[in-house]
Amino acid sequence: MATNFSQYLFLWIFVAFCSYLVRFSSCQPSGYSQAVATFYENPTSPGSGGACGLENDVASAPYNAMITAGNQALFKQSSGCGACYQVLCTQDQNPHCSGNPITVTLTDECPGACNNDPVHFDISGIAFGKLAKSGEASQLYNAGRISIFYQRIACNYNTNILFKVDKGSNPNFFAVTSEAVDGDGDLSLVEIQTSNSTWVPMQRMIGATWSVGIQPDTQKPPFSLRLTSETKQSVTAPNVIPDGWQPRSIYKSNVNFPSNL
User: Fold this and answer.
1) Is residue 111 part of a domain?
2) What pTM did the predictor assign?
3) Does residue 247 belong to any structural domain of this protein?
4) What is the distance between the alpha carbons of residues 83 and 40, in angstroms, rounded to a whole number?
């Protein structure tokens, strides 16, 4: 009798465990992986572009606060800056989740405790609320930390690449941040060509900001910029930085990458 009871108990546990696995696998969208998400500061926070050099530009177009910081699995010592991700949470993860995906751009680092998780997104307060069902964002904010699904996707900003001259630039030192980069979003190389020089590789200064020393007597504007993506695609923005350029100014190119990975 005891043996039969033990067999039935084992069978019940086995069936329950299998049912859990089936249920879990069926609720995970195809192509997505698991991660943890938190949010910046408060529900109205647009997030930050700090560790990627985008500063407060993330609050306005083309990012419109749909951004995220990431732990090292995503930030990758700053080489992950600019990558785009589709994230969502289901009702199985939190009853206030809509299950509808949103797209965010990686613009900052989530250091410290974020690296206790294999993959951790620290999403802007504004974007985090968009994961919730209509009228239930406050409950999701109250949760603070939730499980999500994510997948890497191509960036598509419906505009050409923008180049913001870094505030520290001067006649002897030039630094520039690339914004609204389609496709991979993240860059492996930026090169500069002055009016009378060959292509010169720039150095990654911080995230999406790259810099180079300039000899103002011989390396004169306009400057052309050539960008190479993570997957080694390249685009060239000819003469995009004009004579008389100014720090903090933004110059719009007439090029971008294809919107695919």
Assistant:
1) yes
2) 0.88
3) yes
4) 19
Mean pLDDT, residues 139-163: 98
Q: 63 and 91 in contact (C-beta within 8 Å)?
A: no
Q: How far is CA 250 from the centre of its chain?
A: 21
Token pair in block for residue 210: 């790259």
**Quick check: 150 and 86 in contact, CB under 8 A?**
yes
Please name which of 96, 58, 1 lies closest in space to residue 208, comparing C-alpha atoms: 58
Confidence of residue 20 (pLDDT cuts 50, 70, 90): very low
Stated as kind and residue range, the H or E segment containing 26 is helix 2-27
Rounded Cα distance between 98 and 121, Å, is 18
**Residue 196, CB half-sphere, CA atoms under 13 Å: how many?**
6
The answer to whether position 13 is within a domain reads no
| Six-digit token string for 218 | 């011989």
The b/e string for 221-246 (b: 16+ C-beta within 10 A; e otherwise) is bbbbbbbbbbeeeebebeebbeeebe
Question: pLDDT tens across 58-86, in order?
Answer: 999 999 999 999 999 999 999 999 999 99
Q: Give me the number of domains the chain comprises.
A: 2
Alpha helix segments (H runs only) across 112-184: 125-129, 137-143
- CA-wise closest residue to 222 among 200, 198, 238, 202: 238
What range does the domain containing 243 cover? 162-252
